[in-house]
Amino acid sequence: MSGFEAAGLAEAIATLLIGAVLLFLGHRTSGARMGPSSLATPPGARPGRRLRVAGWIVLVAGGANVLWHLPARPHAYWIRYQTLDTRCSAEFPARPSREKVAMAGGPGDRLSLTWTARDAMYLLTVSDLPAEAPAASDEERLDAIRDGLAQARTPSGDQFRLVREERAVVAGRSVRELELAAGTRRTVRMRLFVWDGRIYRVTADTPPGPEDPDTRWFLVSFRPEGGPPEPASGAPDPRPKGTAPE
């Protein structure tokens, strides 16, 4: 919340307090009960009645002012979607398309959304590690993925360049956040982690420039999940719960 918004909210709350004081004084002056019914006061208690009327008017105006200055929730309509194995999820501003894609380790599952108004593409991908990958810790695998991305090129031939790298822990798992410049035309930001021989990543492909709030929201919405419970013998796998329908 900016300083200007905070000052407006403080002013609105002060208005509410003034209304409450006026209502209280009107009540004390006439001895009437608190509440809207207290407006019906005998003629002999006009000062108290006027204070109560003024108090209710100021309270209503102050309440409307508070609602007006409350911070907006621009991402309230975003919906969380999971990977097919239910071990990872992220929030999208609209329904993404799901497709099978060829990855280095074999077939992968990808959720993708092209946001034309933002000139952006959001991706949530899971794929197996290559079968020939040597034994390594999760951190070593993330280092190898980072190094491979820094040497890769875009389909148009632009060289990727590592701009920023951060390490974090999300839901108990080590997560790596990378920012790569794709030549001078695009910026790719991603978060990824490794779990049981699979790579999970969320990627935002946007125009170059400072990170916008929508991209940041998408990246930080990326989180590991518990995965499906073990089904009973012969029973089908349970459907994922708590996500938007396919």
Structural class: alpha+beta
- Helical proportion? 25-40%
Largest sheet: 7 strands, antiparallel
Total beta strand runs: 10
Describe the structure.
The protein has helices spanning 3-30, 46-69, 138-150, 213-221; strands at residues 79-82, 88-92, 97-103, 106-115, 120-128, 160-170, 173-182, 186-195, 198-206, 223-224. By secondary structure, it is of the alpha+beta class. The protein has two domains: 3-69; 79-224, 3-Layer(aba) Sandwich (Protein Transport Mog1p, Chain A), CATH 3.40.1000.10. Strands 3-4-5-9-8-7-6 form a seven-stranded antiparallel sheet, sandwiched between helices. Strand 7 and strand 8 (186-195) form a beta hairpin.
What's this, in brief?
The chain has helices at residues 3-30, 46-69, 138-150, 213-221; strands at 79-82, 88-92, 97-103, 106-115, 120-128, 160-170, 173-182, 186-195, 198-206, 223-224. The protein is of the alpha+beta class and 246 residues long.
SSE blueprint and pairings:
Elements: H1 3-30, H2 46-69, E1 79-82, E2 88-92, E3 97-103, E4 106-115, E5 120-128, H3 138-150, E6 160-170, E7 173-182, E8 186-195, E9 198-206, H4 213-221, E10 223-224
Antiparallel strand pairs: 1-2, 2-10, 3-4, 4-5, 5-9, 6-7, 7-8, 8-9
Helix pairs in contact: 1-2
